[in-house]
Amino acid sequence: MAKTVQTASGKIEALQQESRAEIKSIADPDALEEFRVKWLGRKGILTDVLRSVSKAPPEERAALGKAANQVKATLLEEIEAKKIEFDANKGKVKHATATSAASFSTTATATVDFSLPGRVPPRGHLHLITQVTDEIVDIFSELGYQVATGPDIETEYYNFDSLNTPQDHPARDSHDTFYVKPGDVLRTHTSPLQMRVMEKVKPPVAVIAPGRVYRVDYDASHSPMFFQIEGLLVDEGVTFADLKGTLHHFIHKLFGKDVKLRFRPHFFPFTEPSAEVDILWTAKDRNTGETKSQWLEILGCGMVHPEVFRSAGYDYERYSGFAFGLGIDRIAMVKHSIPNIHYLFENDLRFLEQF
Ligand code: PHE
């Protein structure tokens, strides 16, 4: 039995040698095609051998099949190599006339010009919003603030009630707030994080909380989904002066030392007193090239309302604190003179690649 295998595989080996010798002497594409048909065509020599494998005794089939398939694979490779060689020679003639590239090699790799620079795959980078978020978080981390996160779907309790927002406050209107189901909303600001953090930790507290927020709003400067960062600091003896000092430090780090800022009195249900902060921003007009300065609102802030401390179970006689909330998109737009907030979310690479 072993002998039959020997003989059969011996035959296959002989065929391999024969075919190899034959292909060496082939000098043109037509002869190559003839060769292919003779060996690998429908009635080709090797095709016959492969077919006969199924008639061999079962215990020999695997070995025979493997050997025959190997010969076939080698043959296909050699035919391919010959083809490339013929093509290259064609190319070489053209090159030689067009340029003086007479030193082109005639090997199978002659069509590859190794001197061409490689194609550099495009490299991705962090989205502008992520870059700006990281920048802001870094500034506050240096001051000892810790990062907190919370859910996008919030209960009305965390989003409104616990933040001293009355039942009839206009922000609760379904025209302004996305209601998921009665009692649950897409958070309209990152302020619910104030309560979620205070419920868990006792003062001193210093947290920064970035995240997506949602409002029913749509125009060039408003998107139904945008990004905010909440800041909260609570301890004994915290004053409005601490808030001002912190925000001055932050804005100068982010926008540069020369930027002026102003605090405008404002109202938020969860802070008292409250303010909005504007910066005096100088930018080149995209169309006219003129530089102009204008006051731009970038954040809301204030001293944490005693009612909020009460909801959190903090002793409001003992502790005081400040909170602020700023729009990340807004800051990215100001820093980079982006005229429309929707550019940030359309994922057009021509836009994103600029940052
Ligand atoms: N949550 C407010 C807003 O979305 C901003 C704010 C945060 C104001 C914290 C005061 C204190 O507009």
Give a short summary of the structure.
The protein is built from 11 helices and 10 strands.
Number of helices: 11
Residue runs with pLDDT of under 50 for 5 or more positions: 1-5, 93-102
Q: CATH fold name of the largest domain, please?
A: BirA Bifunctional Protein, domain 2
Shape: elongated
Task: Determine the structural class based on helices, strands and strand pairing.
Answer: alpha+beta
**Total number of strands:** 10
Named once each, the bound ligands are: phenylalanine
Mean pLDDT: 89
**Widest sheet: strand ordering:** 1-5-6-10-9-8-7
CATH arch. level architecture of the largest domain: 2-Layer Sandwich
User: What profile does the largest beta sheet have?
Assistant: 7 strands, mixed
Rg, rounded, reads 37 Å
Helix content: 40-55%
Which homologous superfamily in CATH is the superfamily of the largest domain?
Answer: Bira Bifunctional Protein, Domain 2
Please tag this protein with its features.
355 residues, BirA Bifunctional Protein, domain 2, alpha+beta, binds phenylalanine, disordered N terminus, 3-stranded antiparallel β-sheet, 11 helices
Detailed description of the structure:
The chain has 2 domains: 2-110; 128-352, 2-Layer Sandwich (BirA Bifunctional Protein, domain 2). Helix content is 42%, strand content 22%. The protein has 11 helices and 10 strands. Strands 1-5-6-10-9-8-7 form a 7-stranded mixed sheet, with helices on both faces. A 3-stranded antiparallel sheet has the order 2-4-3. The longest helix has 41 residues, at 58-98. It is elongated. Residues 1-5 and 93-102 have low confidence and may be disordered. The structure holds phenylalanine. The site of phenylalanine has 11 residues, from β8, β9 and β10.
